[in-house]
């Protein structure tokens, strides 16, 4: 199964939920008028895209339909897809890792698929010929280190780990040293699956960032926030909270195979101007791809 097919399959619940409502509107389609556009706007809001973003999409769609004199049902759908795609194309989705070494700091709450995502990203980088070191800086849970070690082994990455309860920033310091000694290309840092409303855990994140900025001041840095596609509007509050503590450069979207709430990512990108860089659509090590907005929108509508 190709990646687009996996994405389409993974987005089935979102698509069914969205399309069912869209089709109900189009089943009574006679002409493009305000009543029709109001119904479309309501569907977007109900699909977790968010009120402000939904209003923007319909406002842009309204102008476009008027300007291009679009009345055909399929052309209206195409225009809607394109307005969604414009929002998702906020900036370059590629990783900016041009220095040797470079750093990827991965953050997110417990249960979003953070450790799994690190393994998949490490695997992609290894396939591209990069030498990767992984820092197991989630020292609050022994299981987190064990899981990360399994994924690191599968991807061919070296791992730096310490016993449970050790200061996470010290693990990162040791990992930076190993990265330089091994002349590795990229250091990926796992962090505790901190709840965004727990201050002491956010403080640990700040300590880790200070170590990275001091010891690798010249290195390119990506800060990726992993978001569970099933959490809907709760993901928005996570983004806002983590933005206050770190310069988030990209999102990793996971668990799209079990949700009807995949549309939330459109609202997140619009409100925060942060691109989705990776999208996970399965449990296998190669089920992680660079985000493609066109495929994503087609998978929804």
General description of the model:
This protein has helices at 3-10, 12-27, 34-46, 51-68, 73-88, 114-127, 142-155, 168-181, 199-215, 234-245, 264-272, 293-300, and strands at residues 102-107, 132-136, 158-160, 186-190, 221-228, 250-254, 276-280, 288-290. With 301 residues, it is an alpha/beta fold. The protein has an eight-stranded mixed sheet with strand order 3-2-4-1-5-6-7-8, with helices on both faces.
Q: Major sheet, described briefly? A: 8 strands, mixed
> Based on DSSP secondary structure assignment, what is the total number of beta strands?
8
Number of helices, counting only DSSP H or I runs of 4 residues or more: 12
* Relative strand content: 5-15%
What do the pLDDT scores average to? 83
What layout of secondary structure does this protein have?
Blueprint: H1 3-10, H2 12-27, H3 34-46, H4 51-68, H5 73-88, E1 102-107, H6 114-127, E2 132-136, H7 142-155, E3 158-160, H8 168-181, E4 186-190, H9 199-215, E5 221-228, H10 234-245, E6 250-254, H11 264-272, E7 276-280, E8 288-290, H12 293-300
Parallel strand pairs: 1-4, 1-5, 2-3, 2-4, 5-6, 6-7
Antiparallel strand pairs: 7-8
Helix pairs in contact: 1-12, 2-3, 3-4, 4-5, 4-11, 5-12, 6-7, 8-9, 10-11
Summarize the structure.
The protein has 301 residues and is of the alpha/beta class.
Features:
single chain, 301 residues, alpha/beta, eight-stranded mixed β-sheet, 12 helices, 8 strands, 13% strand
């Amino acid at each position: 199964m190709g990646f687009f097919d996996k994405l389409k399959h993974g987005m089935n619940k979102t698509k069914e939920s969205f399309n069912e409502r869209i089709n109900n509107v189009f089943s009574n389609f006679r002409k493009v008028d305000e009543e029709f556009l109001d119904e479309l706007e309501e569907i977007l809001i109900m699909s977790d895209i968010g009120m402000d973003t939904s209003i923007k999409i319909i406002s842009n769609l309204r102008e476009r339909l008027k300007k291009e004199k679009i009345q055909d049902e399929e052309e209206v759908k195409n225009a809607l897809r394109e307005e969604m795609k414009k929002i998702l194309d906020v900036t370059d989705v590629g990783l900016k890792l041009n220095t040797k070494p470079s750093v990827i700091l991965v953050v997110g709450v417990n249960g979003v698929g953070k450790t799994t995502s690190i393994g998949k990203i490490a695997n992609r980088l290894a396939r591209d010929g990069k030498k990767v070191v992984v820092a197991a800086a989630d020292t609050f849970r022994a299981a987190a280190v064990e899981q990360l070690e399994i994924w690191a082994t599968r991807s061919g990455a070296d791992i730096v780990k310490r016993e449970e309860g050790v200061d996470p920033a010290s693990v990162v310091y040791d990992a930076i040293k190993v990265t330089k000694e091994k002349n590795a290309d990229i250091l990926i840092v796992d962090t505790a699956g901190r709840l965004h409303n727990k201050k002491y855990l956010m403080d640990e994140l700040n300590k880790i960032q200070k170590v990275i900025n001091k010891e690798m001041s010249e290195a390119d840095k990506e800060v990726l926030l992993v978001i569970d596609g099933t959490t809907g509007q709760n993901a928005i509050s996570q983004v806002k909270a983590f933005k206050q503590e770190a310069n988030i450069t990209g999102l990793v979207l996971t668990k799209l195979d079990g949700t009807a709430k995949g549309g939330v990512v459109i609202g997140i990108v619009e409100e925060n101007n942060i691109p989705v860089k990776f999208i996970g659509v399965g449990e296998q090590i190669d089920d992680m791809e660079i985000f493609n907005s066109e495929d994503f929108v087609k998978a929804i509508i």
